[in-house]
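Hi all, long-time lurker, first post. I run a small reading group and we've been trying to get comfortable going from sequence to structure in the token notation. Rather than ask abstract questions, I figured I'd post a concrete chain and ask someone more experienced to write out its structure so we can walk through it together at our next meeting. Sequence below, copied exactly:
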Amino acid sequence: MTEFTCTRCGKCCMSLGRHMHIEKSLSPFSHTLRVLVTGERIPVQVNPAFRDLFLWGTPPAYETGWCPFLRKEGDGTFVCTIYSSRPVICRTFRCCTMRILDEAGSEVGKVKGKSSLSTADPVLRQIWEREVLPSSTLPEAQFARHCRTVLASHGYTCEQFDS
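-- Answer (accepted) --
Happy to help. Here is the structure in token form:
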């Protein structure tokens, strides 16, 4: 298994605004966060390194549904300003479960969730739909083995990310 490396694209947090609510503000950097999906209520702290960014980052971020703690940095990447105190749902989230590489070792696809393939490779898409997806009801570990076996028979390799 491979460890997932975040690219800081921010996509995972751009629609969380409807689920993450600042229930109470104790200070500009200390809040009680309520996660509507899980009912979790937790104290969160804005990381000192991101305090200016947190104060500066105002709507339209909130208006477009972003998590209230997501901010865009000057280099175009995104940052969670409460990363060290983020809720459990954020700690366990994996946006990508598997990377698929071609024979040259170039990434040609990503699997999100259990069986949602993102690829521009028409051959990989066809293999996925015909030979892999029909087995998507298998338990997760069996399905992952099946994916690796089928894709390897066509010259692809898979890197499955740790849970």
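A couple of things your group might point at:
The first strand starts at residue 20 and ends at 27.
Residues 16-92 form one domain.
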